Amino acid sequence: MNALQRSDTPRIDVREVHSPEELEIIFQIRDEVFVREQALTPNARNDPDDKRSIHYLADFDGEPAGTGRVTMLGNEAQIAWVAVRKSRRGEGIGWRIMEVMIERSEEEGGEYIILNAQTHALRFYERLGFYSVGSVFTMANIPHQVMIHQLTPGGGETIRRYLESFGGR
Ligand SMILES: CC(C)(COP(=O)(O)OP(=O)(O)OC[C@H]1O[C@@H](n2cnc3c(N)ncnc32)[C@H](O)[C@@H]1OP(=O)(O)O)[C@@H](O)C(=O)NCCC(=O)NCCS
Fold first, then answer.
1. Fewer CB within 10 Å of terminal CB in the chain, N or C?
2. Is 3.40.630.30 the CATH number for 3-165?
């Protein structure tokens, strides 16, 4: 399935959310995936960047199914907390959430996007235009990899400096 077909899929609705009720649903999905399933963290609700971030909730057939977050830091867009409920994986939901967040990062003036990928998802992010920088590191017993997606030609220079800070590559 290609990106265009995914975008046209009517069963998936990805929207920005603000209300405490909708944020609670996001936290429930994070709890389900990152606390209970992966034991990545004991607490997925106290990230200080949540307050200044753009939060997305994905519904599948009207039921909450996935989430993700964009945080703008000047010309850098950070993506984090990307999760799809286990029972809903493989339906294109994660892909659609990422498409929306990449587009939003660009609209917000981001020159590049950076994220910490769990290495099992490297191929998923690579297919969305991300590439690996630096070495694999371990966080909560799960191997991770920093990945970057260049959004603007100017972003190339910023990324070059970023790569230098990793010692090249
Ligand atoms: C990673 C994750 C968000 C992907 O969401 P998803 O809704 O299952 O993914 P999609 O159905 O949109 O998949 C899109 C494509 O990527 C592929 N893909 C999905 N997850 C993948 C993975 N972990 N590794 C490689 N490819 C993957 C799918 O096979 C699909 O390819 P296709 O078009 O050939 O069928 C989801 O598996 C998840 O929530 N995992 C647990 C939490 C997690 O690890 N989050 C990432 C933190 S960095």
1. N
2. yes
For 96, the enclosing helix (H) or strand (E) is helix 93-107
Select from 102, 124, 138 the residue to mutate for testing ligand 1; criterion: most ligand atoms less than 8 Å from CB: 124
Structure token digits, residue 116: 């910490």
Q: Are strands 142-150 and 112-118 parallel, antiparallel or unpaired?
A: antiparallel
For ligand 1, residues with CB inside 6 Å are 1, 33, 82-84, 89-95, 117-118, 120-121, 123-124
Task: Domain ranges for the chain, please list them.
Answer: 3-165
Task: Give the pLDDT confidence of 20-77 residue by residue, as tens digits.
Answer: 999 999 999 999 999 999 999 999 999 999 999 999 999 999 999 999 999 999 999 9
Residue nearest to atom 17 of ligand 1 (CA): 124
